[in-house]
Amino acid sequence: MEHLLLTGRTNERIKLCLAVRKTAKARRENGLFFLEGARLCADAAACGTVISLCLYTDRAAEKYPDRLETILACAAQAFRITPALSEYLSETQSPQGVFCLCEMRQTQTQIDPHGKYLALSFVQNPDNLGAVSRTAEALGIAGLIVENGCDIYNPKAQRAAMGSLLRLPIVQTQDLCALLADCRAKGMHVYASTPDSTAAKVTETDFSGGVVCVVGNEGNGVRDEILQSCDKVTIPMAGRAESFNAAAAASILLWEMVRGETS
Amino acid sequence: MEHLLLTGRTNERIKLCLAVRKTAKARRENGLFFLEGARLCADAAACGTVISLCLYTDRAAEKYPDRLETILACAAQAFRITPALSEYLSETQSPQGVFCLCEMRQTQTQIDPHGKYLALSFVQNPDNLGAVSRTAEALGIAGLIVENGCDIYNPKAQRAAMGSLLRLPIVQTQDLCALLADCRAKGMHVYASTPDSTAAKVTETDFSGGVVCVVGNEGNGVRDEILQSCDKVTIPMAGRAESFNAAAAASILLWEMVRGETS
Could you tell me if A244 lies within 8 Å of chain B, comparing CB atoms? Predict the structure, then answer.
């Protein structure tokens, strides 16, 4: 079956894609998010993401037949688009010509009291969010805990995550403080990372059993309200403390959380 | 003293800045690199970078008086520029209006046989290069070893590095294989990281004394020629192996290299 060709920017579907790509508000209001790229869209389909619309160029159909087949098998609707529309929709310099509108995932509400979780307290940078989720998945972390303000469907974060934000269990919460108190009540260790060198070193911290470790914003770190209720841990540094970026610090923390189990 | 105001894009200094910002070739030919941002330029001045030209807007002079003072004290030449020229020169969305042309650093030629070094085998992504250098500096690594093709003066890498590429000792080499053989001859441990799960685990690797650890390209990893001459190490993963990005893997390796000494 040949899909219809869309050519105009004023088409309602194109307008919806662009709106959802551009703002968190449009994503929330429509319950949809926007993905770009043959590999990322195919990975989304492969892990059960509900694809409500797929748009692709004829060139993409030639170049990525297998990936497109995976995507189209899961897509409720599909249309061909012109190269000009592909350029218009794309956020990348060399668009591959494959785009999907997907339904937001059901996030988890339950936390496994024996699992290891990373909680992100307002990590704003989408590249960092994506990088952290990749590392978390690679290391076999039980899941991410994010606050409602954290935009896991930001297209940049999704691209940097290479699908891990679609596969990792994600718990969203309006009240991180209450959720952490609940974890503590269930017997989990709850830590917050800080550059404060007087805090306990990660190398001397007990990460056995169920653990939640909170990492904060680049720049401001974990906010006081949360920091005060948690045991503080720090990555001991020999060099210039300010030189740690949020994703690097999170990588090392994630590694320390699972280090004893992988070795 | 009030600096002269430059207003035109055809001014030779503006043309030089743009050329040096844009291509590695222009940087090499002029022995210069381009920095943007009040903090980054002030950090460059503070660590002894030779600043041949500073350009700033009147707005920047009001907003960043202290940083500008640090920069201007070290700048051989300085000019004011219009907001339009600042937009024209900037690679960022909200330019701060502070720009410097700096002389490339003298790179190191000596390797301390008791030091810990990270060698980058064709890490192309400038954001990764910057992130890795930040982590290396934070953890007190002795230095970075880069191949000649690695563009440490790429403006994106410099921004992501937040000055660490200007402060860290950097050894540049045309022949990484020969340099690694030389390190081995001096009694250093030389490792190459690989996703190959049959390699020795980083947790079971001897990082005491002098160490060089080679990390490779995102995607291709360390090239065979080098891999074959090195002891291989791997970060054991419980999850999806392909989900590790180069900067995250380097962060964990750097951490393991110094872990015994910081704890």
Answer: yes
- The answer to whether B251 faces chain A, any CB pair under 8 Å, is yes
Task: Identify the pLDDT of residue B255.
Answer: 95
Report pTM.
Answer: 0.88
User: Are the CB atoms for A95 and A86 separated by under 8 Å?
Assistant: yes
Other Cβ atoms within 10 Å of A157 Cβ, number: 23
For residues A90 and A47, the answer to whether their CB atoms sit within 8 Å is no
Q: Find all residues with CB under 8 Å of B214, minimum gap 6, and list them.
A: B119, B120, B121, B176, B180, B190, B191, B192, B193, B222, B226, B230
What tens digit of pLDDT does each residue of A105-116 get? 887 778 999 999
Structure tokens at A213: 């470790």
Kindly give the pairing relationship between strand B98-103 and strand B32-36: antiparallel
Task: Give backbone dihedrals phi and psi of A87, rounded to 5 degrees, phi first.
Answer: -60, -40
| Residues in Cβ contact with A211 at an 8 Å cutoff, skipping those fewer than 6 apart | A116, A117, A188, A189, A190, A191, A257
**Out of A140, A245, A262, closest to residue B131 by CB:** A245
Q: Does A203 touch chain B (CB under 8 A)?
A: yes
Residue of A nearest to B160 (CA): A245
The CA–CA distances, whole Å, from A104 to A28, A48, B32, B93 equal 9, 11, 48, 29
Nearest CA distance, A6 vs chain B (angstrom):
32
Q: Which residue has the tokens 């960022």?
A: B92
Do the Cβ atoms of B127 and B101 come closer than 8 Å?
no
Q: Which pLDDT belongs to residue B106? A: 81
Strand partners, B255: none
Contact B123, B150 (CB under 8 A): yes
Instruction: Strands of chain B (E only): list them.
Output: 5-6, 32-36, 51-56, 78-81, 98-103, 116-120, 143-147, 170-173, 189-193, 200-201, 211-215, 231-234
Both structure tokens of A253: 């923390």
Residue A60 has pLDDT above 90, yes or no: yes
pLDDT class of B241 with cuts at 50, 70, 90: low
Reduced to 3 states (helix: H, G, I; strand: E, B; else coil), residue A171 is: strand
The answer to whether B126 touches B156, Cβ cutoff 8 Å, is: yes
pLDDT reported for residue A146: 93
ipTM: 0.84
**What distance, in Å, lies between the first and last C-alpha atoms of chain A?**
52
What average pLDDT does the structure give for chain B?
Answer: 92
CA distance B202 to B245: 17
- State yes or no: pLDDT of B16 exceeds 80: yes
Among residues of chain A, what percentage have pLDDT more than 90? 76
